[in-house]
Amino acid sequence: MKHISDWALNIAALRGASYADVRVISQRSRAITTKNGKVGGASDTESVGMNVRAIADGAWGFAASADLGRGAVEATAARAVEIARASARVKRENVRLAPEKPAIAEWSTPYKVDPFSIPVEQNIELLLKVDAELRSVAGITLAETNLNFNREEQWFASSEGANIHQTKLSTGVGYAAYAFAGNEIQKRSYPTSYGGQWQNKGYELIEELKLVENARRIAEEAVALHKADQCPEGTVDIILDSSQLGLQIHESVGHPIELDRVLGMEANYAGTSFLTIDKLRKLRYGSELVNVVADARQEHGPGLGTFGFDDEGVRAQCTPIITDGLFTGYLSSRDTAHTIGEDRSGGTVRAEGWNRLPMIRMTNISLLPGRKPLSLEDLIAATDHGILMETNRSWSIDDKRYNFQFGCEIGWEIKNGKRLRMLKNPSYSGITTEFWNSLDAICSRDHWTLWGTPNCGKGQPQQVMGTGHGAAPSRFRAIKVGSAFRSV
Amino acid sequence: MLTQQQAGDIFDRIKKLSSADEIEVLFSGERSALTRFANNTIHQNIAEENHVVSVRTAFGTKTARASTNRFDEESLRQVVRSAENLARVQHPDPDLLPMPDSREARGATGNRTEQPPSRYFESTAATSPEQRADGVKKIVTIADRHGLTTAGTFSSGESFEGIFNSRGLSNWHTQTSSQISITMLAADSSGWQKGSSPDVAHLDPLALAETAARKALDSARPREIPPGKYTVILEPAAVLDIVGFMFWDYSGMAILDQRSFLTGRIGTKLFGDNITIVDDVAHPLQSGSPFDGEGVQRQKVSLVENGIVKQVVYARATAERMKRSEFKDNVGPIAATGHGFALPNEMGEMPLNIVFASPRDPQTVKQMIASSERAVLVTRLWYIREVEPFDKMLTGMTRDGTFYVENGRVQGGVRNFRFNESLIHMLSNVEAMGAPVRASGEESFDMVVPAMKINQFNFTEVTKF
Fold first, then answer.
1. Of B38, B181, B395, the CB nearest to A405
2. Beta-strand pair A234-240/A385-397
3. Which terminal residue of chain A, N or C, has fewer Cβ atoms less than 10 Å from its own Cβ?
4. Domain check: are B259 and B172 in the same one?
């Protein structure tokens, strides 16, 4: 692919670009879904193309093409420079790129079993087996399963001399059981909701998750929710399971720390952030137990935010975001690092595909586990009065990331250290920093899971990106619950 | 961009490569550009061109799809092979129908809908980066004049959708699109406006910028008022974003799956007398393809009449399944309406060209304000999610221009609210409506909707700004 990047970089230089980079990307995906005993969707998709990002007259331009012929590639490079010059008509300052030593490297996601090598018949058989288990429970009115495999191969080259070949592989799987009765629809999902668990792994992920083994329990819980009591309204201690906590981290830590949001670059769509730059290393974000990192390195685990290099050619890093409760870091890019006094990008820039502009995205934003051994059962035993909430059902947060409300699929009342009655429609709400300051217990490493969020939306046009979130079950004191249902 | 003639030639080549009983090829593509600005500067500016060919093969009642954006002979051969390999290993689907021929796709068995007007404008397709930059410059000039910071987008482009199948069906649609979205930011307030049209000449960046700026200025120094049940005046974009969450449920498949809030409610009066909704791709303010994922012409469908849910939309196979189902006697008319997604899929169909009927006595937002003793005026809603699916309980936030109204006058900005509100309750409490307009938001697709004055809207919390 070097010839393609050479064509593009040469034209960008000839047209006067002061900087340019080129990404040639080949993506392949397979998606299989089932619904109520039948295959719902079965598709293979391939998308190949290239893009050029250029700085000319101190401003950015970007152009993309699916045509990899020399004429189209050179025209795309020329167009990127032309667009950059148009951008310069409305600018206040020149783009400033943090220096980065050009890397020449190969990197690929470690995996054991290539998921594309597994016969489709085997995939379908597995999903239909899960489906049959779910529907074997009386009261289940809808069973859905999904299986997804993605491979992205990228060749990155820059006018500074970087040349990186990177291949990322991800696998996702999940299922949901719905029970409609009376005037109510209840739902349970496994391993979590909205597509299940996703990681940068091969087919081995499917084998680790014990999908069939959990199906009957999940279906029975969906049916049992109809007879459960409504989650009360009030203020109580809550324990969140690790998947719900993963989404809580995503929404109330991951998004507010995106430096482009903080700087107003996303104000028209995704919004801004309460985490203005004056709060760096001053704001007490959470209690002293709260330690959050943005870690894209393989050693953090096979998260959807794990890679060798970001889409600006910056090597994967670990940035401390919250350290013993203190706010200590943002997600940054080469063109924003200088605004927080950094001389290097945090390496968090990614694009959805060859036709999208790379931008700051969450990597693996993880709450580190508690240092002392603590299981979920220990935590319940140490709680006098509270509610355990599991598996996200709804999520919403304001455009500065202060006020949030989450609904979960299932709750359990805790009294005197015992898990008692099941509660339906549990929800909780709060203000971000107040919430994280109320955290008083985190389960230990053996209960920590690196969850994948495959559907994070940001940017215009919107780009969907996979992010990772490690979490262990945790307890939060005196949280407002149940106000979502106040009008009922 | 690919033409219908070129696509037809490619389809002929693909057909020869396949041994399937039936074959269908979807073509889609776009040439688009988007100029993005923030902090009164263009900070992102992109252009792209892409074409996709998507092949569905069927062997008896087994079907599957494969797609690629590569059009060379080997890639076409490979995509056909992938579609065939996937299809062969499927389990037979007794609900799968033979592909429609042209006669069936034209809607010969149902009510034919009016053909939509041309939605392709050369000047929109030809909009240059310089023209978009000049539009942004105008917006920035307004921001500078008012001492505000602006962020937003100006996009333009052309796109096509086409479908061919081995029964001789051939449909093609091209259109252009353009959009301007503007946020104006002050120290402690903001305002927003968005316009979209197939014809860029219909977008006025200066007028949109002035309105967004006025909202930012007028909502400065927002005060906090307590949560509770308020009369709200939702501007069309706010109406669009919240009502958009119910249209997934106006689907035969959603009824069969018992995931629709309309299950057991079709034919009943669910909303107020003043709510009438149709799906109509031919409406002059609508846009989009006049045929569905199987090439069937989209028909005009009456979804709600005077608050009574009349019917839902159907793909071909869903209609046949519904006719055999336990629900068949209680769901109104059952026939393919041209709203199916490309097969195979698990969602079935959905209405995508929503038009709210104009009330007998439309009121302007100004009139709604003037008639309000105490109300909250909402510019835009944000991050709406479904909390409970059968009451259609939704949560979300107000954003970018929320005002308190008292004694018929806007009193100033207020801090943004979180709402938890049932759509059924909301559409049963609409006191007044405006004339429907083409509205564009962020949570839903464009629709033709009015501003609404709604009583007893449930705000449950207030945020910090």
1. B395
2. parallel
3. C
4. no
> Is the Cβ–Cβ distance between A410 and A391 less than 8 Å?
yes
Whole-number Cα distances in Å, B456 to A68, A401, B240, B419: 58, 27, 19, 11
Q: How far apart are the first and last CA of chain A?
A: 60
On whether both B406 and B438 belong to a single domain, the answer is: yes
Predicted confidence pLDDT, tens digits, chain A (488 residues): 899 999 999 999 999 999 999 999 999 999 999 999 999 998 999 999 999 999 999 999 999 999 999 999 999 999 999 999 999 999 999 999 999 999 999 999 999 999 999 999 999 999 999 999 999 999 999 999 999 999 999 999 999 999 999 999 999 999 999 999 999 999 999 999 999 999 999 999 999 999 999 999 999 999 999 999 999 999 999 999 999 999 999 999 999 999 999 999 999 999 999 999 999 999 999 999 999 999 999 999 999 999 999 999 999 999 999 999 999 999 999 999 999 999 999 999 999 999 999 999 999 999 999 999 999 999 999 999 999 999 999 999 999 999 999 999 999 999 999 999 999 999 999 999 999 999 999 999 999 999 999 999 999 999 999 999 999 999 999 999 999 987 54
Task: Indicate the residue among B193, B217, B241 that finishes a domain.
Answer: B217
Q: CB contact, 8 Å: A483 with chain B?
A: yes
What domains are defined for chain A? Answer: 2-227 (3.30.2290.10), 230-485 (no CATH)
Query: Rounded to an integer, what distance in angstroms lies between the CA atom of residue A198 and that of residue B418?
Result: 31
Are B73 and B97 members of one domain? yes
DSSP string of A453-478, one letter each residue: EEEEEETTTTEEEEEEEEE--EEEEE
Range of the domain at B202: 122-217
Predicted interface score ipTM higher than 0.85: yes
B12 and B101 in a common domain:
yes
- How many structural domains comprise chain B? 3
DSSP state of B422: E
Which among B38, B50, B136 has CB closest to A66? B50
Give the minimum alpha-carbon distance from A370 to chain B in angstroms, rounded to a whole number: 31
* Domain match, B304 and B349 both: yes
Residues 231-290 of A with CB under 8 A from B: 263-269, 271-272, 274
Task: Examine residue B405 and state whether it is found in any structural domain, yes or no.
Answer: yes
**Does B460 lie in the same domain as B320?**
yes
Overall pTM > 0.90: yes
Longest dimension (CA), chain A: 74
Do B146 and B230 share a structural domain? no
The answer to whether A114 and A199 are in contact (CB under 8 A) is no
